[in-house]
Amino acid sequence: QIDDLAEVDYSLSGLPAVFQPFIDLDLKGIVFPAGNHTDSPYVAASFTIPDQSDSMLYLAFSEYFFQTSSFAYYTTGAFNMTIAEETCSYFNINTEIFSSIIPEVAKYSVTPYPVMLKLMSTEIPTISLQQDSFTVEIQGSVEVLAILPDSTTQSLFTLNIAANTSISLNIFDQKLMSSLCLNR
């Protein structure tokens, strides 16, 4: 069990290879939605780790591991969230702000109302690995809702989003650091 949403199966995918200086264990890491070991829509591809012998332990994660993780969390709805009125009021986000950007919003309210944001992933996020980074492609939508005085909500507009980001990991001063770049 990873958390309440996902589980991982890390069974051996073959017999261990025992050599004089090392043991090679191939584990097949598949992430599933918690309590639902369904087949993944992805196919695992084999890969090799470059021969090196200057460290005691080497770990490698395949693209397949990240793809099944993305699938499991998407299936459980982990990428869908609501940013509530309390958070929006902390940042002072209300209908008046959106009215200055999108004049049609002004039709719904003369008085500034607090807003709520619903973020939804519309497709399974795609993760691909490169030599020195990995790319995450996310498609989703953001629905902006006005919270009316009677506690009902009125949908103001929905934005469809397609984002492509690259993430690079580096070790600096014995700490794992990441850098994030929004490609588009």
Automatic annotation (TrEMBL):
The protein's name: Bactericidal permeability-increasing protein
Cellular component annotations (GO), alphabetically ordered: extracellular space
Subunit text: Monomer. Homodimer; disulfide-linked.
GO MF terms held by the record: lipid binding
InterPro entries hit by this protein: Bactericidal_perm-incr_a/b_dom, BPI/LBP/Plunc, Lipid-bd_serum_glycop_C
Location within or outside the cell: Secreted
One Pfam family matching this protein: LBP_BPI_CETP_C
Domain (Lipid-binding serum glycoprotein C-terminal) ranges: 23-183
Domain notes: The N- and C-terminal barrels adopt an identical fold despite having only 13% of conserved residues. The N-terminal region may be exposed to the interior of the granule, whereas the C-terminal portion may be embedded in the membrane. During phagocytosis and degranulation, proteases may be released and activated and cleave BPI at the junction of the N- and C-terminal portions of the molecule, providing controlled release of the N-terminal antibacterial fragment when bacteria are ingested.
Main location: secreted
Job of this protein: The cytotoxic action of BPI is limited to many species of Gram-negative bacteria; this specificity may be explained by a strong affinity of the very basic N-terminal half for the negatively charged lipopolysaccharides that are unique to the Gram-negative bacterial outer envelope.
Gene3D superfamilies registered for this protein in UniProt: Bactericidal permeability-increasing protein, domain 2
Organism of provenance: Pheucticus melanocephalus
Alphabetized UniProt keyword annotations: Antibiotic, Antimicrobial, Disulfide bond, Glycoprotein, Immunity, Innate immunity, Secreted, Signal
GO biological process annotation, one example: defense response to Gram-negative bacterium
